[in-house]
Amino acid sequence: MEGDVMDKVEATATVRDFDPISGSIPATKVEITVSCRNLLDRDTFSKSDPLVVLYTQGVETKQWREPTEFNDFLGQVFCTLGEIVGSPASRLEKPLGGIPGKKCGTVILSAEELGNCRDYATMQFCANKLDKKDFFGKSDPFMVFYRSNEDGTFTICHKTEVVKNTLNPVWEPFSIPVRALCNGDYDRTIKVEVYDWDRDGSHDFIGEFTTSFKELCRGQNQLNVYEVVNAKKKIKKKRYINSGTVSLLSFSVESEHTFLDYIRGGTQIHFTVAIDFTASNGNPSQSTSLHYMNPYQMNAYAMALKAVGEIIQDYDSDKMFPALGFGAKLPPDWRVSHEFPLNGNVDNPYCNGMEGILEAYHQSLKTVQLYGPTNFAPVVNHVARYAAAVQDGSQYFVLLIITDGVISDMAQTKEAIVNAAKLPMSIIIVGVGQAEFDAMVELDGDDVRISSRGKVAERDIVQFVPFRDYMDRTGNHVLSMARLAKDVLAEIPDQLISYMKSRAIKPNPVPVYSPSDEPPTNPV
């Protein structure tokens, strides 16, 4: 017997911030559609009347926020937003569980980004016969755009450039998010003020006019020629008509492509893990080592790997991860290697999920000798070779380096990163231990874009996260997985988009799901 239910839930997911709870602007709204198949029948004389209850997990307490009680329980499923978005066509199907010995059916979760969150308007204006404000010249006009608020106030949302010494300026085209311009309300008033620029900042007011997004959408025509009016001059001068006119030259709207667009369009994200096996981490047999093999508790590397890995694996469709080590001597000849497979298989370094990586990591600790130096460049170049082979936007590569932060090949690593910045690739560095991470902060490049031999990186592709900032005082527990997730993934979406933009790569259309894709059900 088959029971179906379909419902929709709106969730706010921050593509930029990746904070599943607090969702702050700029944000992407994701509509989650829920449907079920083959549910249990709990009613005697009819089929079940199912409803879906969405629980969210508390950030700190990890407790599920429960609604009020409801009737017969039909099953449950657990997943993250990342799992849904990262599934083919952003459609995740999972079996329902929770009732021992019963087949509870399946739940299908689909995510779709709501379009009004990401429309950008591009427009250009010119003016004619503006008032002359400068004694020895004409005017240096610029415009200020204001979004009206619900309480009647106005908020500045854009300033044009200054066009010097003219009463008939033509301003450069500019783009602005529709949310910034009118908050998605196409009839909301947009106020535009025109000023004459002065060097001392006391800009002279020329006049103003109002419009709306709906009116601007009409494009270039007589209806979008606006009189610039100075209310004070109008009161003082009986013959005053206006202080010039402003005309719309062009107007277009398009949706800004987002991280989710590319993922839903089929772009695959491939994560590679690289672990620091250098002697600066300490002898694994001693409790002071970051690699200490404690049978009762995970060491710093294992905790960081598990915590960060569980976050990123949701966005990797096949959950198979190449896992590398660097800075150790390997048997049988005990030569130092800066890119060895944790599972010992040079031809197939892939591990199955985070558990597979942890297992290979612990096995490596038993077989290799921690040594040095700490060279990042080989693992960066290793992933870059794969990224260089696929530059059409169908695949994007992320290298996760877990290290104690002591680096020996800074110049070579900088050069490798500058070269990798041209490729579909990002690097996440997680620092473990209590050392100073000045070198890692420098590689991050948030303050000063990284450069090598006079060449500046085309994009910022490195994100550094000190793992200790997310641990409790004992160093044994992660305080906030949500905050860690946010900071680890914070820059990946923009980095992916920046690569796609630089190569003019647009996301593929989302594959259309057809009910015929489902296997036939056997009627009872």
TrEMBL record:
Which superkingdom does the taxonomy of this entry point to?
Answer: Eukaryota
The VWFA domain is annotated at 270-496
Give Gene Ontology CC terms. plasma membrane
> Is this entry keyworded Repeat?
yes
Q: Which residues form the C2 domain?
A: 103-226
Q: Which Gene3D superfamilies match?
A: C2 domain
The UniProt record lists the keyword Protein biosynthesis: no
Q: Its Gene Ontology molecular function terms?
A: calcium-dependent phospholipid binding; metal ion binding
Q: Which UniProt keywords apply?
A: Calcium, Metal-binding, Repeat
Which InterPro entries does the record match to this protein? Answer: C2_dom, C2_domain_sf, C2B_Copine, Copine, Copine_C, VWF_A, vWFA_dom_sf
Pfam families under this entry?
C2, Copine
From the record, give the transmembrane residue ranges.
none
Biological process terms in GO annotation: cellular response to calcium ion
According to its UniProt record, which protein family does this protein belong to? Belongs to the copine family.
Can you name this protein?
A: Copine Va
